[in-house]
Fold these 2 entries.
Entry 1:
Amino acid sequence: MSVGSRIKRYRKAAGLTQKQLGEAIGLGESAVRNYERDIRTPKKEQLDAMAKAMDIAPEALYEIDANNAREVLEVLFRLEGTLGLKPVETKDGIAIAVSPDAPGAQKSAAALKAWKRMRDALKAGDVSEDDYERWKASFKA
């Protein structure tokens, strides 16, 4: 999903028009429209201001460059180093697990459990796709 698509999704979830979001961050409606259509790319400061106006974590709007296997591996290597995550083989394929002896393992395990609970609720129809996306975006550092 592109940055523009995420801006649009979270703006709508926050109940804001393009004009209202623009006013909240000191830009015009056309600027927001151009961001949402991926015609222009907002700077980090603008993304941070939009996230604040929509009451979501700024990271929910940031682009993650993982367009090929090497870039995906780089993201996974960072997760391994910072969160103690590791690949494991299961009967269904490859999964990610938390190394119990890694620093911060309890926090990583708790986060993965919360994510699984919400994914299960989505699959069961207990929450909508919009509710799920809003939940993901709600986490702030």
Note: The mean pLDDT is 90.
Entry 2:
Amino acid sequence: MGTQRSDEPQNRQPGSGSGERGQTTLDFAIGISVFLAVLLFIFLFIPGILSPFTESAQDETVSSNRVADQLATGTLASPSDPYALDSYCTVTFFEGDATGCPFQNAPLEEQLGVATGNQRVNVSLRGNLTGAGQELLCWDSSEPDTGLVGSSSGECDTTGPTDDTVLSRGDALPDTEPSVTSVRVVSLDNRDVTLYVEMW
């Protein structure tokens, strides 16, 4: 009588060359590395997606745009000729006066309709008069060369008898607080200049 072969698999002991293997240290290290890389990417990337919708600067964004439009089209310019600033009223505004101009004599935040307890504002005019980039402008009131000059030039003298006016008004922008800047290109003294409204 011949021997019969069994088709049932025989019990095999671990390590007997079955072709199956357990998890190795290298597999674990690669899996954890990929997991940590994805986790780090999420923490770095997601806040950047959501940051435009955070409420930290939302009020300032709306207010600075409103103030920039208000100054460029009505307060410092005629509504019939927007973005062309009136020289006299522009200089008067930056001097903190209101004589003969269509705005009230009041602190800057009150003039611009900004909430004085919560928001701070700085308004300035900058231009490229010397080819050195955007610099803060000054109104030179000396005769006969009345007009715009750079505030850092020797022509701007705020201490002398000519009483030139630096075209900036408001508190200095702090380095430690987030701010919002609205920009409008306007015309003053037949030159293209840039109106900056910074709020924080």
Note: The radius of gyration is 34 Å.
